[in-house]
Structures are given as C-alpha cells and as structure tokens.
Amino acid sequence: MSSLGTVPESAGGPLVTIAIPTFNRAALLRGCIQAALAQTYNNIEVLVSDNASLDDTENVLRQFDDKRLRVLRQETNIGLLPNWNACLAAAGGEYVFFVSDDDRISQWLVERCVGVIGKSRVPIVVALTNCHLASFGQTKPARASRRIGSGLRNGADVLLEFLADEINVAICSVMVRTEALRSRGGFPVNYTHAADVAAWAPLLLEGEVGFVNEACATLNLHDDSETGRLGVAEILGDGWKVASLISRTADERIKIASLRQELKLQAQRCFSRRALRFLAYYRNNGAGLLEVLEFVWRFRSDLMVVDKLSILKFVAIILCPRPMAARLRHLRQSFPQGWRGHQTAVKPG
Hints:
Layout: E1 16-22, H1 26-37, E2 44-50, H2 57-62, E3 69-73, H3 80-90, E4 95-98, E5 104-105, H4 109-115, E6 124-133, E7 138-140, E8 151-154, H5 155-163, E9 174-177, H6 178-183, H7 195-200, E10 208-221, H8 232-253, H9 257-284, H10 289-298, H11 300-303, H12 308-318, H13 322-334
C-alpha cells in the first residue's frame, strides 16, 4: 500500500466525501455519522441528505459540532434514488462514498482506499464488506480474494472476482471518483433494487482500479428497508438488467474477445445465482411452492445459465416440507454461528 504521504490532495477542498442519504432513521443515523467522522484519514467531508424526515433526524443532526459535517435538507421526500443522486450532485470531494444510514463503516475505510491510489486518478476503489443479518443477529465476515491482493489492479479481474462470489462488496465500501460517476448519470432511477451495482460495477471496466482485500464496512440487511418492500419480479428483473449492463459495457471497453465473453457469462451466472437464492429465501419465508415455480418459469431463459450445483441447492430448499423448513429456521435462530455463510437476505448490492 502507498503511504498516505503520496496520496493526491484535492485543491481547496476535501479529497473524499462520505455521503449519507437518510430518511426517518434518527437513531441509526447518529451512529452512522459518528463512524464517518471517526475516520483515521482527515481530508474528508461528511454530507448528509435528509429526505424530509418526519422523526427526530433534525435534532440528531444539531447535536454534531464538526466543521466537516454538511447537511442538505430536502423540502419534500424526493424518493430513495433521487436522494442518492442529490448527494452526488452536492459532493465536494474528488472521490465519494455512499453509506446508507443503517450501514457502518470502519474507521480505517477511507485511509485504506486512499492508500492504494498513490498518485493515480483511478475511477474506483473497491474494499470488502461484511454483512450483518439482522433477523439472525449475526455478522457474516467478508470473503477475501485468494487470487488478487490489495493495490492497483486490472478492473476486469476485480469484477470477475465479484461476479464469481469470490469477494463480498457493497456500495458502502466502494469509493468512486465523483466526476466518473456523474458522467455516467449517477444512480439509474429505473434500477429500483440494483441501482448501486449498476452505478459502480461498470466503472471497473475503465482499466486500472484500486482494490482493498480487507473488510472495511458492514452492510446491514433487514426487512425494514426501502428495497425490502419491492416486488419479487422487480427484484429479479433488476439483477438481469445489471447483467445486461455489464455485458454492454464489456462490449464497449474490453478488446480481448475471450475476456469479454468471460465477463458476459459470469455476469449472467452471478445474477441468476442471486435470483435462485432470493427465490429460496422467498420460499423459506412462507411463499407457496407453485408461486415460486411460477417465477422460475417466467424467468426460465435467464436462469438457464446457472451452474448445476446452484440448481440442486435451490430444488432441495424449495421442496423441503414446510414443517421441516420451520424447524430449520428455528435451528438457525438458536445456533446462528453454526449456519454462518448460508443465509440470504435482500438489499441493493
């Protein structure tokens, strides 16, 4: 890793913005801001965009007396993704993180990501993300790459690791160059479930990128989220829209035919695996077998690319008798550590 003495400094302003879009989560917001302000790297600003909250959010924000904190207040609720884009538009840093108010970043996140840049101006730096499963009261550690280490890397290699589920990455541990994301239009509002991945994943095909093979944030997965209220078809469809976006970007950016085809295949397989995991989760949470099979049939052409092992696991889960499934859920709740790595929950990214 490069020493912090060689990292680029932004003229007249912070190098990094930590953007926190929020709505009606005053209790969680306090801890999120505290984690952002506790960074070991100091050349930052923390930007909170309050999407017309009706709870105690305004009072929470008044409790902070730190010149690095800047607050936007939307007069009316403009929607989840427009609020994220409002953060992007207002960000003063050359680079920006987007951290949901219910997620948490480690105090070394910015230092690690800035440290791998050196004097370069890469479009994106990706660090790893733990996953807290609220319904089971456990945190699943991020999977680290066994193939590539921290530093400046070929972005296609990092993307392939992500698509193969060899690393765990969510938006809260991704640092993007602000202008690079703005030039792509920010977060696409027509990707209601996967807008975050649609925003950052294509940037990995711009060439050299930064990679931190270490967990630097924790994603909080729970049912009380904006995306947790989306319909099944919407969630499944968004995944394959991202796969198509990655494929189109690979066609535009990748000159080597074999690498281009591998990226396109792995993108399809990745989001097909995720679709099966979500449908298994949906079944385990009370959906009828026929209802699940209707979705399988509806999206059968997209699911055909998935590997046989994923299909076998899926079939075993959805065909599990309801009493046995209830018993397994009880065991997972009683002995969560013994089930580490086998849970699936839903949130963008």
